[in-house]
Write a structure and sequence with these properties.
Pfam families: Metallophos. By secondary structure, the protein is α/β, with parallel strands linked by helices. Helices cover about 40% and strands about 20% of the residues. The chain contains nine helices and eleven strands. Strands 1-11-10-2-3-4 form a six-stranded mixed β-sheet, with helices on one face. α1 runs parallel beside α2. The protein is globular. The chain starts with a strand and ends with a strand. The relative contact order is 0.20. The mean pLDDT is about 95.
């Protein structure tokens, strides 16, 4: 459990009555997602916030064991709760594979094989170009249409009060409305090493850390769920942040 550090400057704040629950980098760990849903549900039943928003920061698929069930859970959640789904670099790359199957070989190297397996598709080594195209067609047929629609409709950012939610981060020195999607989904060092304020307090994932980092200018809540078994939930209300 991590709470926000003491800050000399005014703390970022959500509008009155709003509570946000944020999760990032689920990476096919459906069982951990179900556990976090139970935590959120219990907290809401106990405290009954005026308006709760569940914000998911991308990388729902790849690497972990059950991308398919993860998408089922998220889509079902969207029908019953106030949810916001952001795009991660893994979703961006996956949809590019659907449009250009020749990119599938690179996708396999950073977790795509696990996604294929979750849809009941096996992958032989050293596939040729024609075989890659056939494999992607097989995947497209195996995926429920709502899964593909979900992955293609993700948004790059979400803003609420003094908080800016994004998958990877932002490029320092560039106003938030002018950020490039490439940076929003992929940036690391320039963002992570910056001590600057970014116009709003940035909540992000993308770069795994041992435990959630709640810093002066940003919060990183990617705790490497697929490798560590630790999926972090960040709860925000008013100017209070709590990472579980």
């Amino acid at each position: 459990m991590v709470t926000t550090p003491t800050q000399n400057r005014p703390r970022p704040k959500l509008p009155n009555g709003v509570r946000i629950y944020a999760l990032s980098d689920i990476h096919g760990c459906a069982h951990l997602l179900e556990q976090m849903f139970a935590v959120i549900d219990a907290d809401m039943a106990n405290s009954r916030p005026y308006r709760a928003i569940e914000v998911f920061l991308g990388d729902y698929i790849d690497r972990g064991p059950n991308s398919r069930h993860t998408l089922d859970l998220l889509i079902d959640r969207s029908r019953r709760r106030n949810t916001v789904f952001l795009k991660g670099n893994h979703e961006a790359y996956f949809t590019s594979v659907l449009d250009d199957p020749s990119r599938a070989a690179d996708w396999f190297r950073f977790g795509g094989i696990q996604t294929l397996m979750s849809y009941g598709i096996s992958v032989a080594p050293d596939l040729g170009k024609d075989e890659l195209f056939d494999l992607v067609r097989e995947l497209t047929s195996a995926m429920p249409p709502q899964h593909i629609a979900f992955l293609r409709q993700l948004r790059p950012t979400f803003t609420c009060g003094d908080f800016f939610f994004v998958h990877a981060g932002v490029r320092p020195g560039i106003p938030l409305p002018d950020q490039r999607e490439q940076d929003l989904l992929w940036i690391r060092d320039e963002f992570l090493q910056s001590k600057k304020r970014f116009g709003k307090y940035v909540v992000h994932g993308h770069t795994p850390v041992r435990q959630a980092e709640l810093l002066e200018n940003r919060a990183n809540i990617d705790t490497g769920a697929y490798a560590t078994g630790n999926l972090t939930l960040l709860s925000i209300q008013g100017s209070s942040m709590l990472a579980i």
